[in-house]
Amino acid sequence: xxxxxxxxxxxxxxxxxxxxxxxxxxxxxxxxxxxxxxxxxxxxxxxxxxxxxxxxxxxxxxxxxxxxxxxxxxxxxxxxxxxxxxxxxxxxxxxxxxxxxxxxxxxxxxxxxxxxxxxxxxxxxxxxxxxxxxxxxxxxxxxxxxxxxxxxxxxxxxxxxxxxxxxxxxxxxxxxxxxxxxxxxxxxxxxxxxx
Length: 195
What we know:
This protein has helices at 63-68, 160-165, 183-194, and strands spanning 8-18, 21-27, 39-42, 45-53, 56-61, 79-84, 103-112, 117-122, 136-139, 142-147, 153-158, 176-181. By secondary structure, the chain is mainly beta. The chain is globular and about 45 Å long.
């Protein structure tokens, strides 16, 4: 389980295809602290560390993960948001994040707001996912509060710290982002559909 509070950014150094899987080599300041078999969130996708070498680590994404996230669009030199799994003896600063991406959204607009940024994101409503005004959403692994919430889009406000320390500063209109909707909202939606 994760909280959506990003620890570091990693640079994508290498991509190797192996059958239908993709193996990614990433360099980051926390790579040397990782262990093989450890769960690590990469832009909100929970992946298992398969190798650690000095300041780099490797993870593998299977075809299912590539199809349901934006990992298949990653390019060498891209920066990804990283978060290790939550310790059970620390503060819970974000919200419950599983690292299971629900779908990919599209950045519709980015507006600089004199020191912060307003980003509008669209998503496919057919999957039954919902956002609520002032509710939680995970965008590329970042725990954020959504507003201007409708059935197929929402907005998030990005403070300077988040903008400078995550890959939000590299987003452009039309880019895809990984979305994980709030787990409580997903359970409520499921219960309503069962009635």
